[in-house]
Amino acid sequence: MRYAAHLLVVLLLGAACGNGAVPPDTADAAADVASAFACPPGTVATMANLVPLPVASTPDGGQFCLPASAAIEVNPPTPELLAIGQYLAAQLRPATGFALEVRGTATPQPGNIHLAKAQGKWALGEEGYGLTIAADGVTLTAAQPAGLMRGIQTLRQLLPATIEAGTPQPGPWPLATGTIHDQPRFAWRGLMLDVARHFFAVADVKRLIDAAAYYKINRLHLHLTDDQGWRLVITSWPQLSALGGSTEVGGATGPLFYSQAEFADLVAYAAARYITVVPEIDMPGHSNAALASYAALNCDNTATALYTGTEVGFSSLCIDATPTTKFVGDVLGEVSKLTPGAWLHIGDDEAKSTSAADYASFVQALQPMVAATGKKLIGWADIGHATLTSGAISQHWNPYDPTSVQLAVQQHAQALLSPANRAYLDMKYDADTPLGQVWAGLVDEQQAYAWNPATEVPGVGEADIVGVEAALWTETIVTLADIEVMTFPRLAGLAEVGWSPVASNDWAGYRLRIAAHGPRLSAMGVGFYKSARIPWE
Ligand code: IFG
C-alpha cells in the first residue's frame, strides 16, 4: 500500500504538528485509493504458476486490478529503461487494449506499474529483481536493466493467461498482491538453434527468441555452419554462403543464409530482450559446406560436393594449410565484428576425420586467434583434449563422454552443460514422437527437468559450471512448428534448472505449474508437446 503509506506519513506529520487539522476522512482516503483498483468479486489471482520458480514469492492475499488508466512509469527515464518500458507496454497493450503510456516518473503514482533502477546496496546481482504488487500499484526494481527484463517476464506470468493474446480480451487484469525477490542460480541459461542442417528465416528465429525470453533464457547460440550449410555471409569469402549456403538437409535450394544485416537484426532483437547471441563456426570438422565452397581448404585442393544428408564426422579442414589459417582468421574477424556478445563458439566437435595431432595443433592455433578478436572461446567439450588457455568454456554434450569436459575443467576451463540425455531437444519425448532422434535415449519432460547440473558429471561441480543450454539440432526439424513442438515445454524445464534454486527442483510441483502454461503458450500462438505426463489446463 505504497500510496496509503505515503498518506499515513502525511497524517502522522499533520498530527505531530499539533495543528490537529487532520481531515476526518483522510484514513478513508487511503482505503479509497486502494479500493479504486479493487477487482470484481470472484476474481482469481495467484503467484502459484511461475516458471522458472522464483527464489522467494510471498503473496499477501490481496489483489490489484490494472486500470485502463495505468501508466508504465520509468525511473530514471534513460533511453534504455524507457525502451524496457516500451517492451512491457508492447506485451500488455494488445490484450488489454489499454494505452499504457510510458513516462519518466520519480515517485510512483497510484494505479501504475513503476520500473525503477535500484539505488544503493543490491544483493540480487545482474539479473535479479524485486517485485512488489500493492493494492494500488506495481513496483519492479532491479540494479541492472537485465533484471527489469527478467522481472517483466514474471509480471506477465502473474497476469491471466489471456494477457498473452494478440487481440483485445475481456478483463479484469488482476495481480495477486505481495512481494517477489528473485535471481538466477546460473549466469548462462541458453538455447542453441542449429540453422545449418535446416535454415530458419529471421522471422522464425525472432518468434523463438520471444518465447525463450518468456522463460528468462539469456543466451541464443546459433550453430551457423556445418556439413550441410554455411548460413552467414562472410564478405571476404563470398562463396561460403553463395554456394555453401545454397542447400540444406533434404536438398532444398535457395539463398539459405543470413546477410550480415539480417544477422545484425537478430542480434539486436535478442539484445533488446537481454539475450546474448553466441555465433558458432564449427571447425575443423562439420565443415563440408566450406570445403565445397573453396577447393583451397581441401588438402587435395579439390572442392567437395555439397552435402544434403545427415551423417557426421566425415569432413575436416586441411589443417596447417596456408589458406586454412587465413580462412579461420578472416572468418573469426568478420564474425566477431558482428557480435557484441563476449563469446565466439568454434565448435571443434566430432573431428573424426582430423588426426589427434592435427586436432590439437588446430585448437592450439585457434585460441590466440579468438583472443585477438577480443572474444572468449567456447567450444564443444572435445576441446578438452587440447591444451586450453584459461577462460575458455567447454560445452558438455555427450553423456557417453564425461572425460572431455572433465579434462577441460581440470585445465580451469568453465563448463556449460548440455548433456544430450537431458538438454538435446532433438531427442524424441517418446518412442512415437514423429520428429527427432534417439541416440541419447528418450528425453521426456521429466528427464529434461529433474536433474542437477552440479552432480551431472563427476568432477564438475557448481563452481565450474556457467550454466545450462538446451540444443535443438535440426536434421529432422523443418518448420517453426517443428521447432516449437520439440522445444516447448522442455525448454521451460531447462530454464528452471538454470534459474531456480536446486532445493526447489521438484517434478511433482513443476508439472502442475507448467500445466498452467498451456493456455499461455496457446495465447502466444506457440506450439508445444502435450503429453499425459503433464495435466495440461
Ligand atoms: N552430435 C553432433 C551434432 C548433431 C547431434 C544430433 C554435437 C556437438 C549429434 N554434435 O552434438 O552435430 O548431429 O543429436
Structure description:
This protein has 537 residues and is α/β, with parallel strands linked by helices. The chain has three domains: 1-36; 38-182, Chitobiase, domain 2 (2-Layer Sandwich); 188-505, TIM Barrel, CATH 3.20.20. It is 33% helix and 17% strand. The protein has helices at 2-16, 26-35, 79-96, 145-158, 202-214, 239-242, 260-271, 288-293, 322-337, 356-372, 403-410, 420-423, 445-449, 480-487, 490-499, 507-515, 518-524; strands spanning 56-65, 72-75, 102-104, 112-117, 129-134, 137-142, 174-182, 188-194, 219-223, 276-283, 343-347, 376-380, 393-396, 414-417, 465-472. It has an eight-stranded parallel β-barrel with strand order 8-9-10-11-12-13-14-15, surrounded by six helices. The chain has a seven-stranded mixed beta sheet with strand order 1-7-5-6-4-2-3. Helix 10 links the parallel strand 11 (343-347) and strand 12 (376-380). The two termini are 33 Å apart. Mean pLDDT is 95; it is low at 1-20. Bound molecules: ligand IFG. Ligand IFG binds at residues 312, 349-350, 380, 397, 424, 426, 437, 473.
